[in-house]
Amino acid sequence: MPTTxxxxxxxxxxxxxxxxxxxxxxxxxxxxxxxLKLAPVAFLxxxxxxxxxxxGTVALRGKHHxxxxxxxxxxxxxxxxxxxxxxxxxxYLSSQASLLLEFLLGLVIMYSGISYALKxxxxxxxxxxxxxxxxxxxxxxxxxxxxIPGPPIIFQLYRQPLEFPTVRHMLLLIFSTxxxxxxxxxxxxxxxxxxxxxxxxxxMPLVMLATWIAQRHPPPVRPSTLQRLTLIIxxxxxxxxxxxxxxxWL
Length: 250
Fold this sequence. Notes:
It contains ten helices and no strands. It has one domain. It is about 80% helix and about 0% strand.
């Protein structure tokens, strides 16, 4: 129970950062919890997936008209099979190469923070379906392997000439789909842990509270300052996960 409550508190912290910056929940929760050895990556990814499904279901209600469906279908066509492939790779690495898994997780978290800081210019025209499909494949792999599907699809969508509400709701749908595929696969093979469901249920009130606090009492700093702080936190978490693996290999 103490470990479960600590994970729930970290989820609350990640929710606060994500509410005020737009990103960071899965990266902060999975990265920090892995760093503190609170739970395996697979368990943490399942907890975040369950919370993401609930969040997406509520947030997308009545908002489907905001989604750019042609590009979204192309992304989802790549997301579904690659998420399953990522889960199969996770099963192998969790038992055979845990240090490699932590090292790769650290790299993904650092890349996420840095790529967000170095925003690419917006394109004048929408990318083609193949580009969206490939980004979906990478998104599914990251979502299946680490429970962090964000980096590839965030990079892809923020380069498109789309309004922010459209991008936001497309991300919600894509993340929810990735999470649903993860949970469905784990349920089908009998690996959807009851403890993960309970942890998500315990964390849900903290998620709601953190969201309410962030919306009504944001930190007294500029958004750009908070984004830089989040970037620094992500890079430090990523480095902390990579260094032990490097020391073991050298």
